Amino acid sequence: MLRFLSAKQIFNQTKFLEQDTVLVVEFDKVKEITTKNDVSIDKIEFIDGIITPGFVNTHCHTELSHLKGKINTHIGLIEFAKNIVNKRNDLSLNEIETHTQAADELMFKNGIVAVGDICNTNHSLPVKKNSKIYYHNFIELIGLNPKHAEHNFNEGLKLYNLFLSNGQKATLAPHAPYSTSLQLIKLIEKQNALNISTIHNQESIEETYFFEGEKSKVNDLYDYLNIPITFFSPPKTSSLKNYLPYFNSKKNILVHNTFTEITDVEFTNDFVFWCFCPNANLYIENCLPNYKLFQNKINSICIGTDSLASNFSLDICSEINTILNHSTVFTLEQLLQAATYNGAVALQIDDNFGSIKGNITSFNVLEFKNNNLKLVSKLK
Ligand SMILES: [Zn+2]
Asked: Each residue of 47-59: b (16+ CB within 10 Å) or e?
């Protein structure tokens, strides 16, 4: 049976469609997009809200969900990292799985249909195997000592193969410029060639100091971890300019970008996506990126929630609201594009996600009042 849906507004993937747009739906699939003129008025169902594609959360760490509320706000990235190292194994595997399951359900309830998820462990695997959400797993590798690159890479490959053998989509990804050697990045990128990669980029000013050869708290972190880094000589350039030439994946999702500068943005190519996680930035550093630098990058910005270790929820509407309330650079339309279509392109899933082609049960119904976006329901 055909259904004819109109709404207050319908967002396709890059823009709001004309007011008189009607979605013709058959077996929950959008068959055609037409106008009210072509449909008899008594057949039209009116949806009291904004219809959008389901959200794509381009950056999360579901395996850290048990750290919700365990780390203080505004302590800065280096202290935050120490806390993660100390607390991530505080709970039993069973408890970690329970929290991961809850995070997965929370994201689904919040209208998220696909996630780019960072994995340092196999802890999230059982949840993902039964999830209604699509996951792209970024198997994250860490190691600044170039001598250990081969070993670290081989360890990462084991986890990568475990995800693949469990029917999961996965690629390798370096953690951050200050924690991954160029040798390790080269090995990762050789493996990734035609695929996707991601990296935490310029999340703290300490990263910039570290690469410029100035006094940096990154050195304190290595002292704290008892890892001597005498082998590291600062390249005296920005971290991004140092590592990006070695990235050759088809899509590179740079996450955070809080201390990215205009020369960094100009240095990048079309393969780069800029993922913003504003609530996590406020939680950890109490600082946001200079969004103005990205105003010409409308087709390559996307949105992430980061983990519950650095966020109060996993909610794309809340991330969009934070950006809208702190900056006038992006319109609601552009941020919806970032949260749907751009994220889908970045994760190479735009055939199935990120637009209003496809199954309407993955669509959201939103309300936008007083500069505040809210999920009202999922479309049924
Ligand atoms: Zn992260």
From this structure: bebbbbbbbbbbb
Residues 342-361 pLDDT 10s: 999 999 999 999 999 889 99
Pick from 197, 180, 199, 184: which is nearest to 151 by CA? 184
Give the tens place of pLDDT for each residue, 238-297: 999 999 999 988 899 999 999 999 999 999 988 999 999 999 999 999 999 999 999 999
13 CA from centroid of ligand 1 (Å): 25
Ligand 1 centroid from CA 310, angstroms: 9
Q: Is the pTM of this model over 0.85?
A: yes
Helix (H) or strand (E) holding 172: strand 169-174
Between strands 55-60 and 112-119, the pairing is parallel
168 in Cβ contact with 131 (< 8 Å): no
Beta pairing, strands 21-26 & 29-35: antiparallel
Comma-separated ranges of CATH 3.20.20.140 domains in the chain: 55-354
**How far does residue 68's CA lie from ligand 1's centre (Å)?**
14
Confirm if 150 and 181 have CB atoms less than 8 A apart. Answer: no
How much distance in Å is there from the Cα of 342 to the middle of ligand 1? 19
Burial of 289 (0-12, 13-18, 19+ CB in 10 A): buried
Which residue from 228, 173, 232, 240 is spatially nearest to 203, judged by alpha carbons? 240
CATH topology classification for 55-354: TIM Barrel (3.20.20)
